[in-house]
# Entry
Amino acid sequence: MSSRLVLALDETDPVRALDVAKSVAPFVAKIKINYPLVLSAGLEIVTEISKFSPVICDFKVADIPNTNRLIAKEAFEAGASGIIAHAFPGPESLKAIREVDSTKDMYVVITMSHPKGGDYFDIENFCKLALEVGATGVVAPATRPEDVAKVRNLVGDLEIISPGVGAQGGSSKDTIEAGANYIIVGRGIYLSDDPAAAAEKYSKELV
Ligand code: BMP
# Structure
């Protein structure tokens, strides 16, 4: 069975980031890159890492449609296989990303994993929106499996990717049982003394 693990590569040293990415590639389905690495290494790092793993650009895009379109275009042209966007700017902003390249993945944040991270998110409306705009999937928190289960009921077959396993205390097993397709692990892997071994361990817990 293929891996259900996504690495969140928030390592800001570009050389180390590439080393980690290469060593964990056999154990992960995808690598998620966020602002810390892109701001330190430049967008070229997306192109580099895409050579050995699909890359999701976690830019949490949240702007007017034209700006969302421009951001998505840059990310996809750099080689990203997908992008993460916020729901609250509404359907036109999300559709603008979809229209850049509908073969790419678009994930919509439904609610967040940190303490009180769910207090300002509207799970029902955001799930409805993700379906309406044809999202590939949604982001829901491993730290609150009850929210993952709620999201699963609302989004049908859309993919659920869940951050918060490891450093934030979420459990892989509970998250998958609640209905997530993939867990996202960052510090639990890239800060480990042996990132490949850590990735292998997390990936085995999931099969
Ligand atoms: P870590 O395993 O080190 O906590 O990393 C989690 C990753 O997932 C980070 O890149 C973070 O920005 C992202 N993330 C999250 O933790 N919670 C959310 O609700 C949404 C996220 O994208």
Observations:
- The first helix runs from residue 14 to 24.
